[in-house]
Records
---
Amino acid sequence: MTRRGGVSRGMVAGLQCGFGADDDEDAVRENRRLAAESVLPGGTLVTVHQTHSPDAVVVREPWSLADRPEADALVTDRRGLVLGIVTADCAPVLLADERAGVVGAAHAGWRGAHGGVIEATLAAMEQLGAGRGNIAAAIGPCIAQASYEVDDGFRANFEEADEPYFERGREGHWQFDLEGYVAHRLACAGVGHVEPMRRDTYAEEEAFYSFRRATHRGEPNYGRQMSLIALPA
């Protein structure tokens, strides 16, 4: 989803789907309803409390917003459920094994991707009968390498094998390719087909919310877009 449409107003105007955005709660609920309806009319939206963790959960029945578990990925084989992940520069990853009837959604910022959220999501999908070679994964809008400057301290979190995802910038700094890194993790984990969207949340202001853009501008708040997936009815 982009930020276009929706009922939120002010600094986060549009289809703002994050409860942590200091937005009107009724507006957020309506935006989430609109988003879920566009994917599966009559479906029930299920989300998690995202914490940049490597944790994935299996969804067998919907839970209330107050009871949502802390995790950064969710998978299901149940029809009627719409899995949703909110992002504002991190990479949303949507996964499906059509043959097995299993879908998943993951929130993959650098910390979660490096920590294993992708592999955890795939393992959870396998619990439901999915096969990695049959899984197709789409990487949604996230911050692009040209917009993602990091410092030497950030680079030190990664191994030498990850060098292709870092381009040297000004002294002591690098440009990090989050989308490329996530695609690499998916491919190395055995996913059959990986499709990056190649959309930059930072640069495309009319289309996407961006945490880093808001931070650079000194804005007190930022919105979140939602990425969703569901099994067909």
---
Amino acid sequence: MKQEIDFIKCNPTQNMTILVRTDHAAEHYSGIASSLMSYDHVYAEQVGFIKRSRRQEAAARLEMAGGEFCGNACMALAAHMASEIGLEKQGSMKIKLDVSGTDDLIVCHVKRQEHRYDCRVTMPVPQQIERRMITFEAMELEMVIVRYAEFIHIVIEVQDLDDLMKQRAQHLARLLGITMGDTMIGILLYDPVTKEMTPLIYVPKLDSLIWERGCGSGTASVGAYLAWHRQSEVTQSIKQPGGAIMVTAQWNAEGVNDITIEGTVEIVACGTAFIDTSLEQSRSIVEV
């Protein structure tokens, strides 16, 4: 049986994102997302579902397929909504979103350029940041844990990133997915010299393990880590395989208290996708 899916495909820093406009029950999110994300289908790194929010102050609700939070998907939805209302060139607007993975309303400032939308998005603030040394796969590994209410990011400073380190990151992500119970695990390999980040995102509910081209929430976590480490406000452009995302993390005596990221979104496709609802597909590791 074929099911029709009304979708938009967006490009926030090459973190290719599919937004589903048709209404579906949450128990079908995983199967729909696995089909849409696959190489032989629409193909993307993540899928979000646009819903009506029960919070009056929010313009819409965004539910990611694995229940995780995603900053780039917030930018994508804000750009789509600006496009839908016909925002004029150089026009700007503010959109509040209700998003899975956080209880905070996400505020998106959108400005339309010729063929893209510039977005600035408020991000969840970590509940805790701590440095920890562990022994993992016969090596001493120093990492910084950036913990949120429903997800966790691990920042590991690296130089000369090689395949062995990437393999270890994959193993660590899966291990944490089994033991931590979070909706999303991010392993952020960060080079403090070049200011480059290579993000690995694992969503246990979907068994989706992807080296992303760009990661908004990971950018926010690196910004939070830098502010925590320096104990001062940080504004930093974080280079990633798909481009750069700007982060600003505010700092006061109580710690990191405000984070925003800035990036660009292009709407690259929209239309109807067809999936076989009788097939249950699983998502395995994808190297991008």
---
Amino acid sequence: MTTDDLPVIAAVDGSAHSWEALDWAVDEAVRRRLPLLVVHVRPRAGHGEEEKGLREAGELLAQAVLRVSGRAPELPVSTLAPLDFPSAALVSLSRDASLVVVGSRGLGGFRSLMTGSDSLATASMARCPVVVVRTGRTDGSDAEPAATSLDVVAGVAADESSGAVLDFAFEAAAARPGGRLRLVHGWTMFSSILSGGPVFDSEAAAESAERALAELTAGRDEKYPSVEVVREPVRGSASRTLVTASATAALTVVGRRRGGESLGLGLSPVAQTTVTHALGPVVVVPS
């Protein structure tokens, strides 16, 4: 298997959120023309319980395969049921994956928590991009989910650290004809000073942030001519804009800062807020 056909991994545990994530993963695998690997991580059981756990895992994965075949009959699909802690197993498997897709909460999630600890840990430490799926179909409310557009929204820093985020975002937008790529960048007067930009003129600082975004995307505009790009410099934190946009975006893309992965501290404040409070699918892209 080459790096071009590494699978999309979908983690399932029998919860409604994981079935929602599986459906999203199937659609993305078809869009990317990649195989799908459905993973159910078996919890460590007491003596004599392993056979029961293995049987239940087999039944769950068979149900998942049936669901996949009903949605995408031609999609190559395989299954795996490792015995481990969920985030540890998914982080390990992410070394040989194009994408890992998880639900916002699993069977052990509390309703008061928008995102489960396993989802956050996986997004913080995985070696490949991780999508945390939330579409509103499983939030328990009677309200209809917001209509989803084809737009891809990306939170970017106006420097070279956003290269991986931009690459992923442009590719995702190109795979969704008819949508736009919205690039959101939060700036402050302090960040303008640090970058050598205007010090006291906020209008000039905003224009400087706009130019920086244009410079970042110059080469990619040529590579993806079909992608309509909207640049959105936002004064202050970009978190509010990203969370609001996520309600109707096809996908919201954020980056993961360098360092801290071994301690599970790979998410920046903007990424953590976006993943935790987003109203739609969010992908965390490692630098």
